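Q: Start with the shorter request: fold the first protein.
A: Done. Sequence, then structure:
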Amino acid sequence: MKILAILLTVLAAIISIGGLVEPEHRFRIVSKYYNFSAGFPDVPTVSTDINDEGLNKHLWTVKRNHGTWAEYFVVSATCYKEALDPTKELDSADSQPGAGSQNGIEVLQSERTQVRALETGRELPAFFRSTKDTATGSVIFHKLILDRYCLIDAGARADKNVGAASLFMQSVSILK
């Protein structure tokens, strides 16, 4: 599983260094409130919702329809009144990793991990999963990051351009 992640990282680097595609981080958002940044391929649509505690939940989304295939890049962020429990939040994210296989979803990688803050080096609990729709070949990446009271949830779908989705997921970073 980790080999797939390494291969996707190398592929993304080769594509971006080789100039084979347009730069995929043309629009970087920085949220000091939610303490993260992400590099989007286009200007994201921003929307606001309310989480289950009545607090704001922000969503940044880029969707691209290429006719015969589609891709999306999304980050949502929200905070809660009490500190988030990594065991509760992240264990439930991976509670049934095999359930998707019955619906044509193959889990390529699924793991709890740590994300290091760019400025301070502080490590935060995180969860990463990549899946593949066996019918369409679409690869979907998903990353949850817990930052005390806040939850950053990022995802990307790549039907044909796994490199762009991989670059986007790598760009989702914690600031401090």
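Q: Next, the second protein, separately.
A: Sequence, then structure:
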Amino acid sequence: MRGAARPDDSDDMSNQPRFTSDGGTYPRRSAERRPERGGRRRTFAIVALSVSGVLLAGGLIVGAGLVVAFGFNVMGDEWVCSDGDAPAGAHGLYNNCYAEGSTLPAGVTWDPFGNRPMPYNCKKDGWAAIERTVTHRGVPNVEKDCVREGTDLPSRWHIAESE
């Protein structure tokens, strides 16, 4: 019987999965073919790389911000008071700004150094860094300021050493 279908052959050619000796079906599903990978080790590696990437990106952003800030000298033109104002106060604390030439309230005197760049910004032409040692609650500290070159300094103030 050539060409004639035998009843046994119909089961062999069907779309039913074949069974193997270990009880599983053949062909195996794709997930079953892959070897099992180290779950904890892989998860740790992914988390570690992710955290490292985030920290590296954050560091680059902060670093770029500092480069821009120092490159454009954002704080480099900061003064004690605005243009047209000068510092004044009482008891040696000159932390208020008043219009230059105005009449000051009772007990308030002009700061002897006048309006000036902030102490960290004394490297301008015509300005000098000055300092004095002060003691607050038994702890000595160096107080820094900025003054026009050639200005007579009050007692205890002296020109700061070059940095």
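Q: Describe the second briefly.
A: The beta strands are 18-19, 25-26, 85-90, 93-99, 109-110, 127-136, 139-148, 158-159. The chain has three helices and eight strands.
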